[in-house]
Amino acid sequence: MSNVADHYSYLVRWSPEDDAFIGTVAELPSLSWLATDQADAFVGIQQLAHDVVAGLIEDGEPVPKALADRSYSGKFLVRVPPELHRRLAFEAAEQKVSLNRLAASRLAANG
């Protein structure tokens, strides 16, 4: 039987502060696993996530859904300083596009 943690988003990176590789999981941000070997950091964080999910299920606690398995509406609110809002509105008007289209194209270019 598949565990929801199989679909979680794992990252392994070098940590100069720890002089080791650190494994993390986006859906459970409080977890991390240190190892001197990159593969060991991945295996460690994945096993830790599986253990935590099993514990949550056992305790009747909610289990975070994997980012990859979530549905996205395509809408989110971004707060910006009023002057930036004004500047972007002017730029959108100059380009004869909506502010939404301008923002979406900027996000896509940097994503």
Provide an overview of this structure:
With 111 residues, the chain is of the alpha+beta class. It folds into 2 domains: 4-68, Double Stranded RNA Binding Domain; 72-110. Helix content is 42%, strand content 14%. It has 3 helices and 3 strands. The chain has helices spanning 38-58, 82-95, 99-110; strands spanning 10-15, 20-25, 32-35. It has a 3-stranded antiparallel beta sheet. A hairpin with a 6-residue loop joins β2 (20-25) and β3. α2 packs across α3 (99-110). The chain is elongated and about 55 Å long. The two termini are 34 Å apart. The mean pLDDT is 94.
Q: Tell me how many strands there are.
A: 3
Could you give the order of strands across the largest sheet? 1-2-3
Task: State the domain count.
Answer: 2
Radius of gyration: 20 Å
Topology:
Elements: E1 10-15, E2 20-25, E3 32-35, H1 38-58, H2 82-95, H3 99-110
Helix pairs in contact: 2-3
List keywords for this structure.
111 residues, alpha+beta, Double Stranded RNA Binding Domain, 2 domains, 3-stranded antiparallel sheet, 3 strands, elongated
